[in-house]
Amino acid sequence: MKKVIKLLIIDDDDFVSASLSDYLINKGFGVRTASNGKDGIASFEREQPSLVLLDQKLPDMEGVNVCQKILEINPNAKIIFITAYATVQYAVEAMQAGASHYLSKPFELDELSITIDMALKNVQMEGKLRVQDYEREKDRREKKLIGSSEVINRIKEQIELAAGSEATVLLTGETGVGKNVVAIAIHDLQAKRETYLTINCSAIPENLMEAEYFGHEKGVFTGAETRREGIFELSDGGTLVLDEIGDIPIHLQSKLLTALEDKTIRRIGSGRVIPVDVRVIATTNENLEEAIREKRFRQDLYYRLAVLNIHIPPLRDHPEDISEISDYFVKRFCRGPVRIPDSHIRKMMKYPWPGNVRELRNVIERAALLLQGDEIRPADLLLQDSLSSPLEKSSQKTMNIREIIPLEEVKRRHILSALRACSGNKSLTARSLGVSLSTLKRKLREMNIT
After folding, report:
1. Interstrand relation of 274-275 and 196-200 (parallel, antiparallel or unpaired)
2. Is residue 371 situated within a structural domain?
3. How far apart are CA 32 and CA 115, in angstroms?
4. Residues 66 and 107 placed together within one structural domain of the fold
């Protein structure tokens, strides 16, 4: 069911109010009317309409004063002034008071309709921007680089170095180590760049990749009913994060290299070159040097991306940060003061964390759901399988060379153990391992696990 848009008419001319009300009700609006400023303000506070048609001269107060009071109640409301006293001074006063549009009586109803449509489009656009700002701020609050170890301090120094430059950055590391957290930190330290966009290169179908990156003209292929800007154009003046850069097909890598070197793009079906000012940060959990040897990744593109290369080590390489990171997630997911027993912290520091910080986050979140009292017990939820067994045994005795399990077999056993623990549910298994569902499915295919 379509939502009815509320509209308030504040005008002391009963004929004008009735005429406009009938017209707008037929257009599908929910209309309320008021004949003076006091009643208009009260009606606005009660109904909270999106639009207000406001006469500039009212019996009890000036329309400018009504406009200011309405915007104090809701700064996002759109106010259209309608007046028989059309002068430049009145128009300037109306705009300074916060009006979005200004119409002079008498006016055509078509003119009013166009003005209302414009105001509604502004309402929708501002609403989307508020949602984007909220999500961006939420991401910044939630995605923090936590820790005080030498490893984390070194990464923070590299972040500051990257933020002071416009060079392309390549972030490498295993799945779940926090590459996107580092990307956001670099962007936030750059005052000149506002837009921050992320595109997951592995999530886009290969036949749509070029259009997604560079855009297309109308009618250039089936389904291209309108011209569309690509992600590079949308990121102009900002930061573009190419997540999982290693999954870009080889035939598109040359076009990406051209965009990075020339700072220009060309839409599909267009001969016009469009300049773009984009700071690119690429992330990958693959070994790109190995991909170069296997002819899956261009060497020249690698050098262009890795002007600044920041490697984020796995969580098992800095276990001293686990306590601090765990406390951060406990505060996020638990209400009230909650502590983690020291025995659990010790056990968590010995655990290898194949899913890294993402897995730690998921363990804390699940433990928070099972919380009873003021102690959270995340170590009880750690996966006990063959991955940790050899590591624990090696601390008690010297391992015979014949007992060493190949790394790929360890990964295979760990994934199978996780699948069994999650009753074969792949989505739950991926979350438990701290990897994306697409990554898990790819690993299953590589290991011939159905």
Report:
1. unpaired
2. no
3. 19
4. yes
If one counts the domains in the chain, the total is 3
Q: How confident is the model at residue 372 (pLDDT cuts 50, 70, 90)?
A: confident
CA angle 129-134-140, nearest 5°? 125
Distance between CA atoms of residues 34 and 102, nearest Å: 19
Q: Which residue has the tokens 């696990």?
A: 449
Q: Are residues 49 and 114 in the same domain?
A: yes
Domain region containing 155: 143-313
Cα–Cα distance measured from residue 76 to residue 266, given in angstroms and rounded to the nearest whole number: 37
Spatial separation of the C-alpha atoms in residues 8 and 58, rounded to whole Å: 15
Q: Which residue has the tokens 């170095």?
A: 161
pLDDT digits (tens, 9 = 90+) for 316-338: 999 999 999 999 999 989 888 89
- Residue pair 258/304 in contact (Cβ under 8 Å)? The answer is no
d(CA 400, CA 415): 25
Alpha carbon distance 293, 296 (integer Å):
8
| Contact between 82 and 54 (Cβ < 8 Å) | yes
SS3 content of the chain, % helix, strand, coil (to 5): 50, 15, 35
- Lowest mean pLDDT, pick from 32-46, 203-217, 297-311: 203-217
Q: Are residues 160 and 290 in the same domain?
A: yes
Residue 324 lies in a domain: no
Query: 105 and 166: one domain?
Result: no
Residue 15, both tokens:
């004929």
Q: Which residue has the tokens 């505060």?
A: 331
Sheet containing 30-34: give its strands across.
30-34, 6-10, 51-55, 78-83, 101-104
Answer yes or no: are the C-beta atoms of 253 and 301 closer than 8 Å: yes
Question: Rounded to an integer, what distance in angstroms lies between the CA atom of residue 196 and that of residue 132?
Answer: 10
**φ and ψ at 51, to 5 degrees?**
-125, 150
Tell me: do 116 and 219 sit in the same domain.
no
Residues 95, 317: Cα–Cα separation, whole Å: 59
Model confidence pLDDT, tens digit, residues 384-405: 543 444 444 444 445 555 567 7
| DSSP-based three-state secondary structure for 83 | strand
> Domain with 162 in it: what CATH number?
3.40.50.300
Beta strands (DSSP E) in 135-224 are 169-172, 196-200
